[in-house]
Amino acid sequence: MQEYQLIATAASGIEALVGKELRNLGYDTRVENGRVRYIGTIKDVLNTNIWLRTADRVKIIVGEFEAKTFEELFDRTEALPWENLLPVDAQFPVEGKSHHSQLHNVPSVQAIVKKAIVRRLSDVYHRRTRLPETGALYPLEVAINKDHVMLTLDTTGDSLFKRGYRKAKGGAPLKENMAAALVMLAHWFPDNPFVDPVCGSGTIPIEAALYGHNIAPGINRSFVCEQWTNLVPDGLADDVRDEADSKADYDVELDIHGYDIDQNMIDIAQENCRAAGLTHDITFKQLAVKDWHTDKINGVIVANPPYGERLSDKETVHELYRQMGKIYRPMTTWSKYILTADLEFEKYYGAPATKKRKLYNGALRTDLFQYWGKKKR
Signal peptide position in this chain (predicted)? Predict the structure, then answer.
């Protein structure tokens, strides 16, 4: 099988986790801002789409070069072997972005790249008329940064955070891959208790259960590359899914709880949990933060509480942070991981974090306040 230069794209602050995931899957990696590079075949493309919990997309790098003029962009794009990826009837829309570059007009950049690919394919396929573009979708992107051009083919389609289980959601739900990142950053072991005290639509507990059972997060969804009959041998996607399914441990018993003060959110969380096939693994219950207590030890709390962005909500949210501190501070064997955009969180919680980590929830800067517990043997 032909090997490709690949990238897994990721939210800012998550790249190292994506790199770790890829290394655990057996790939050599190079972590860069917003992406991780690796090499693989089309089977590896399918495998990493199915397995990556924290990435956004898997892309094939078609080519990279420097370009400061439209002529350079056209000639170097046309020189690439597009026929190795795109059949004669391929639909290939071109998206673009440009930062700190001479070629900063994105619509023009997209049009030039499209024209160059059309010229190349028309020559190779001996087409005198327009290319039909009636076949499978091959989404392309031209990204220019400091005059360095990267041309990629997206193999994923809908972003990897769309696992397929979220049938309903609340106001501002956390993306599934960010929730998975929080679970992984918490260094939780599946034989220990896991609690989300403000679970909303249930995303963090569901991602914890998928992780705890070693269930591949993309196993129940499809990817755009599965339609590429010129590149993906018949039956390969099913084989990769079967292989992934064989690695899941459905027998491990998990102690995962999700709580929320709003019964409506608990109903939504339970619906999503059913869609994920995890109803026996997670207990959801309507409960306020201040009313929770436990005698269990060595647990992990992962929470994405409200941020109180509106002035009218701020005092309510700060009171919530105070309640968290009052209840969680004495729980010395438990580790607590709280994600919030409120940089004054520690003041209201009542204790400085062991460590803080900057993460981006979409475009919003947030901090993960980490309070490490001392495990009791």
Answer: none
DSSP bridge pairs for 340: 367
Q: Six-digit token pair at 284?
A: 């959801």
Other beta carbons within 10 Å of 123: 11
pTM of the full structure: 0.95
Which amino acid is present at 263?
Q
What is the rounded CA–CA span in Å between residue 42 and residue 22?
15
CB atoms within 10 A of CB 308: 20
**Token representation of residue 165:** 């289980």
Mean pLDDT by 10 residues, the chain (377 residues): 96 95 98 97 98 98 98 98 98 97 97 98 94 97 98 98 87 88 97 97 97 97 98 97 97 97 96 96 97 96 83 84 97 97 95 95 90 91
The count of other CB atoms within 10 Å of the CB of residue 79 is 12
Pair 263, 211: CB distance under 8 Å: no
What is residue 360's predicted lDDT score, i.e. its pLDDT?
87
Name the 3-class secondary structure at 66. strand
| Mean pLDDT over each residue of the chain, to the nearest integer | 95
Give residue-wise pLDDT tens across range 12-71.
Answer: 999 999 999 999 999 999 999 999 999 999 999 999 999 999 999 999 999 999 999 999
Helix (H) or strand (E) holding 180: helix 176-185
- Answer whether 212's CB lies under 8 Å from 183's CB: no
Beta strands in the chain (DSSP E): 4-9, 30-32, 35-40, 57-66, 94-99, 140-145, 148-154, 194-196, 256-260, 282-286, 300-303, 335-340, 355-361, 364-371
The one-letter code for the residue type at 166 is: R
Contacts with 92 (C-beta within 8 Å, 6 or more apart), sequence order? 86, 114, 117, 133, 137, 138, 139, 140
